[in-house]
Amino acid sequence: MLKDKTVVLGVTGGIAAYKALELTSMLKKAGTDVKVIMTRAATEFVAPLSFQSLSQNPVAVDMFEEPKAWEIRHISLAKAADVLAVVPATANFIGKAANGIADDMLTTTVMASKAPLLIAPAMNTAMLENPATRENIDKLKTRGAEFVMPAEGRLACGDTGRGKLADIELIFWNIARLALKSKADLSGKKVLVTAGATREALDPVRFLTNHSSGKMGFAVARAAMLRGADVTLIAGAHTCPEVPGVNTINVSSALGMREAVMGAAESADIIITAAAVSDYRPAKVSESKIKKGEGGMSLELVRNPDILKELGEKYSGSKTIIGFAMETEEIIKNAADKCAEKRADFIVANSLTAEGAGFGGDTNVISIVKGDGTARDYPMMSKFEAANIILTEAAKL
Ligand code: CTP
Q1: Is 210 within the bounds of a domain?
Q2: How far is the CA of 323 from the centre of ligand 1 (A)?
Q3: Alpha carbon distance 161, 143 (integer Å)
């Protein structure tokens, strides 16, 4: 997902330093080149060798160590970074970074870098609430640094309160977002997303459904949450783990999805319907299990409401509405027709047959298609990257 990206990970001296090991491993698995800088104090908590082994890169600690190659280390690291993340960040580091103090490898690199800066503080509650720390955090924020603020919990000092390092997965996804150049540009926005497959019951045992895994819609919900939006996800059947921070409502049938969507749509600013909704449902749902007979069997189906169309009729022009279309032929033309008919702002078209697209995978090949037939094609990318492109286009509207 993050191939060709370099993350410079600063680790400062707090008990949560060991959690940065897991982060290093997650970043490596996502394909990033991770370069770790530790402060001296951090090395008291975790051995540099642990980071070196996981990152498969030398760990920088000392400004004045014997150079292994002819390069000025803090400058080369500063330039190499697509994202600079400091996890965990102590009050001391935050104070120095906010006030332009550069007295070790990490702070000089931060000063020298133009890369997006993500800071995940971890400290005792009183230190976090200290006006000095609060001012320093505000100062860094006004200069563009982003924070993943600490969670509440039991702290190493025995106190209970805010100060515990935020969830590592949340930090990881924020780094991923920044590596893909997505800002936290949706704060204050309400985003409604649908995902997964609907199930249309025949009897208490059987249903009609499709192959949707929900991965694309879940990726959109996650990306929108990371960009600061208040996200409601209406999910049919899917294979995805829950996304913390996203309000997920599970539904089963198209009718159930329609009810949940129409209930949540009123307050939404942006609506993205990635769900694969069944166009038909059995005319009759048998209350008891249908027993087999001698001959064949035919099913009578009736049309389901078209949720996207209903949204378009009600909210076109007042809310941003984005649909999806999975096609097997004449992708752009069919998607453009769908867009015009359902009055969406644009349709994300994906081919069922293209290499790297289709059901269940972690990648997609999308085109953004408007009702007037204009389209923009994108190469194969991770569903998370595709989600960010969709949100960037939605935010422009
Ligand atoms: N959609 C919906 N309600 C339905 C069917 C589809 O809201 N009953 C939405 C999907 O979530 C998707 C878009 O409409 O955003 C396109 O879905 P798709 O099934 O590809 O298009 P259809 O309009 O059903 O056209 P067809 O099946 O004929 O290709």
Answers
A1: yes
A2: 8
A3: 28
Which of 101, 157, 202, 354 is catalytic? The answer is 157
Residues of the domain holding 17: 6-179
Where a domain ends, among 155, 179, 203? 179
pLDDT for position 68: 59
- Our answer on whether the CB atom of 347 is closer than 6 Å to any ligand 1 atom is no
Q: Is the CB of 324 under 6 A from ligand 1?
A: yes
For 143-171, the pLDDT digits (tens) are 999 999 999 998 888 889 999 999 999 99
Would you say residue 220 lies in a domain? yes
Residue whose CA lies nearest to ligand 1 atom number 28: 279
Q: Residue 248: name the closest of 235, 262, 259 by CA.
A: 235
What value does the mean pLDDT take over residues 297-322? 97
Say if residue 171 is in the same domain as residue 193: no
Is residue 291 in a domain? no
Which of 179, 207, 228 delimits the end of a domain?
179
The residues, any chain, with a CB within 8 Å of residue 106's CB and separated by 6 or more, are 10, 12, 37, 38, 39, 86, 93
Annotated catalytic, 339? no
Ligand 1 centroid, distance to 75 Cα (angstroms): 52
What global pTM score does this model have? 0.93
Angle of helix 307-315 versus helix 254-265 axis, rounded to 10 = 20
Q: List pLDDT tens digits, range 351-371.
A: 888 888 888 899 999 999 999
